[in-house]
Design brief:
The protein has 233 residues and is mainly α. It has helices spanning 37-48, 60-72, 76-84, 99-120, 137-148, 152-165, 168-175, 181-188, 190-199, 203-226; strands at residues 8-10, 17-19, 22-23, 93-94, 127-128.
Length: 233
């Protein structure tokens, strides 16, 4: 699509982005009403930096905002349920051997489980192997309540981050500023890092990981812009 506008502006609350005085709408034709001035300004800047042809790939904040309004807000509980599937958490499945990997997992992952216990009052179970097991009901209840507290815009960021990290714990740590995107991603890639250090780097896998990290950083920025302070019920 060719660029069809000249001026880009942001309104006072309720925060909207205007193109030549006309409010931007979502693909479903809803008003693009944004939760913070900071997010509105970030999206306005994406519009300003477009060239003669509009490149949707260069507008990641707009894409996530559209998703929040059109696809998350109408089915918020269902999206929260999707995020909760990552309670089948990467950090809870541990290697039995080699022992060096088991020690590394405990050293790097256990502090996050300690943080969850301190923050939410529940302790996730940990087991060796990869066979699925269920977490205790108090864990499920507490973390379900925590996910449900997120409004549609930050919940959209969580829904983007959780599949990349494979971990509800790391997703919460990212959302609450306990970890930044790079640190959370590094912890999610612990097993891959261990293998690469011993058997060599897989360039294709490294390229995929770099792409996922960029997606995670976008979700982190969107989360910070859309919800500077997150209240957990």
């Amino acid at each position: 699509m060719r660029r069809f506008y000249t001026d880009v502006a942001v309104t006072a609350a309720p925060f909207r982005v205007l193109l030549d005085g006309q409010p931007v709408r979502t693909p479903a034709h809803a008003e693009l009403i944004l939760p913070t001035a900071a997010l509105a300004e970030a999206i306005a800047q994406e519009w300003r930096t477009q060239g003669e042809t509009i490149d949707p790939a260069a507008m990641p904040h707009l894409k996530l905002a559209n998703t929040a309004i059109d696809r998350v807000a109408p089915v918020r509980a269902a999206v929260a349920g999707q995020v909760m599937t990552y309670l089948n958490d990467l950090l809870c499945y541990r290697a039995e051997r080699p022992s060096a990997l088991a020690v590394l997992q405990a050293t790097e992952w256990d502090p996050l489980l300690d943080w969850v216990q301190e923050r939410y009052g529940v302790r996730l179970k940990v087991r060796p192997g990869i066979v699925h097991f269920d977490q205790p009901e108090p864990v499920v209840t507490a973390l379900t309540r925590a996910v449900a507290a997120f409004e549609p815009f930050p919940l959209t960021a969580l829904a983007a981050a959780a599949p990349i990290l494979g971990s509800l714990v790391l997703t919460f740590a990212l959302a609450e500023g306990r970890l930044d995107a790079a640190a959370a991603f590094a912890l999610s890639q612990l097993d891959e890092r261990y293998q690469a250090e011993r058997w060599g780097r897989d360039e294709e896998a490294a390229a995929r990981a770099a792409g996922l990290l960029e997606e995670l950083k976008t979700a982190e920025r969107f989360l910070k812009l859309s919800s500077p302070v997150i209240a957990i019920a």
